[in-house]
Predict the structure of DNA helicase.
Amino acid sequence: MTTANAPVLHPDLTPAQRDCLDSLPLTGHHVVSGPPGSGKSLLAAHRAVHLALTGRPTLLLSRSNLLRQLLHGMLQGLTVPGAPAVASTVHSWVLRRFGRDAPSTEDGWFDWTALTHRAAATFGNGDPSTPHLVVDEGQDLPPAFYRVARLAAASVTVFADECQRLTETNSTLTEIADALGRATGRVDIAGNHRNTREIASLAEHFRTGGPQPEIPLRSGVLPVLRHYSGSQDLAEDVVTMAARQPRHRIGVIVGSLRTAADLMRRLERAGLAQEPQLYSSAASAGRYRDLDLARPGVVVVHRASAKGLDFDTVVVPDCETDADNDPTAAALRMAYYVMITRARERLVLGWQGSGLPRHLERLGGWVVTK
């Protein structure tokens, strides 16, 4: 196949999304940026399929294993027989590429400098097994990763939004492009096809920078600011939501594993029509590791694993845990920007205790208080 742009294989994209894909040659490194709801994960999956048609191995990478599961599901519906693209975590790819003895640092992450030297030793050898890499939520990986990827891949395409940097080892769009090299292409994708106007407007209160995204035209109900008297009150509210919206995917995004485990026990005792699901990064396999993110019902996830996901209804039940933080801090605002923009139709920001957390004050007409 030539290096001309790949054809659009599927008609389920907006004109702007098709234009984005058509603007990406099948050679070279590229950074695609866009706000929440612009379809970056879907575009990343399409991009991986296009690159797989060149005959090279193609990997769709994410830092989060839960996002990998979502991307795997997307690829299952897109991949062309005979030219498969594979979803993988960055961690798994590094171990396959550099061996189980890939050097690491004291924090448990990889020694990117050492891996750069290893990758440089084989750079430019023309190996047909050298893969194309497509990275989703690329802002959550360090610049040093991209220096390794530049040497270890035939091409690298990164989909990212620097307003959603939640990890300590993150990158700005400029840092990603600089690490990949001067010839790196830059493409912007606009639009918000996920949130309602009300949810997107609330999210704007927490956005930390970058160009102002388009506010969706689709309207819905106002987000809810709700006080919970305790854990049982929270569980009963989630059970009620599931009963009233049996076809909804309800994401409960929590700040601690203790809260997640306690809520899961209460939900399991409630006899929901759909068995609740809990994702734990500590689980190596089984029901707390492998989730069905497409089916209706309640999914409990930690904040660190919520990136890239979306739900019909989102509940952030423990906002009081952030009460002592500076409400203007970028890290706090990014966290809420990400969590809020996971919601398609309904959003609940919950809190417990005697006083409204400072970062939830002055939300004005953006929410309904209960």
User: Anything to note?
Assistant: Residues 1-8 have pLDDT under 50 and may be disordered.
